[in-house]
Write a structure and sequence with these properties.
Number of helices: 9
Helix content: 55-70%
Length: about 130
């Protein structure tokens, strides 16, 4: 199971390399489905897809990118509050407080991009504060 999670994360990091195999195609499809569910704010289908794939969100979060953004950022941009708060609750606090690819934490990015008042930002702040 851990091997699957690591291979998914590795796939997304090295997404510029194209290798055709059924396993990689399934991982690409999983990432595409996750991104679609986040954008459409479909928490139930996201949960179902993760469960069917036997993957934990915390294990693949760093490796999944939707149009160059993390799942939390794309959720904020698309106004997907249900999915965004779900993702925030499933991630470890250490992941919520660390800098992402551009060097900003999710809270700093949200505040600088007009998402400081969103439900997702409130959920992240609550988790970081220990509440």
């Amino acid at each position: 199971m851990r091997l699957l999670s690591m291979s998914i994360a590795t796939l997304f990091v090295a997404s510029s390399i194209s290798i055709s195999s059924p396993a990689l195609a399934n991982q690409d499809q999983l990432a595409a489905n996750i991104c679609n569910y986040v954008v459409s704010d479909d928490k139930n289908r996201l949960r179902k897809k993760l469960k069917e794939s036997r993957v934990k969100l915390r294990n693949i979060y760093d490796g999944v990118s939707c149009n160059g953004d993390s799942l939390l950022r794309i959720a904020m941009k698309s106004g997907s509050n249900a999915v965004g708060t779900f993702v925030a609750k499933r991630l470890p606090v250490s992941d919520l407080g660390k800098a992402e690819a551009d060097g900003q934490t999710i809270i700093a990015w949200a505040e600088s991009n007009g998402h400081a008042g969103s439900e997702i930002t409130s959920a992240i702040k609550s988790r970081i504060a220990g509440g």
